[in-house]
Amino acid sequence: MYEFKFHRPTTVRQAAGLLARQEEAKLLAGGHTLIPTMKLRLAGPKHIVDLSQIEGISGIEMKGRSLVIGALTRHFEVATSPTVKENIPALAELAGLIGDPAVRHRGTIGGSVANNDPNADYPAACLGLGATIITNKRRIAADDFFKGLFDTALEPDEIIVRVQFPKPNKAAYVKFPNPASRFALVGVFVSKRGSEIRVAVTGAGASGVFRVTSFEDALKKRFGVKSLEGMTVPADGMSGDIHGSAEYRAHLIGVLARRAVAAATA
Fold this sequence. Notes:
alpha+beta; Uridine Diphospho-n-acetylenolpyruvylglucosamine Reductase, domain 2; 4-stranded antiparallel β-sheet
């Protein structure tokens, strides 16, 4: 690793101030992206701002018809929370599919959302449920938050403090995982909340997580598997690598979307 200065603020305001004042400062939450990239010398921030001592930005609660999860809440906590299982079981299942036990006990929802890895699971949940990302400055709709590969609407001194998920009537997440990393080769999150239908895809898009509006329009007529029969997405705009071609990923989107709808209506 490169030499760096370690900071441990006790409030979000202090952490944001450090980000604003210090050049090349990076936040440390679970560390599952930052630490490996530093060990490989792919990143060399001069300042590390550790969020672990800040109170009030972890935990899970229902507020009205919305599930609110603090940014430092671990994946394991989301996966095993009775509150999440009762109100949005698809989100609990998604969290339980992330990585392995070591990753789930250290990784945080805020870190995953802020990093916006193109193969991560939580961005699909945020976009697929119409979540709101709450920072120290403002509230950002998921549709406006994810901008591209590892790119979000966050400003340099902006910190995620909570993620708010509206409770759906029906929802499910199905993914085809890379057998080694458990990242999504393709993952599809579907939800129905009143007349609003959302279908979000992670792992497949060359520009990161995205919604499939053609599937959403078909499901608005009837929320059932038959509505998606024969429907596909074009391979243009899909990513391709040694694990799967763009055409393969495009095919998987249709397969997994039908499976997700079947699970949501079971």
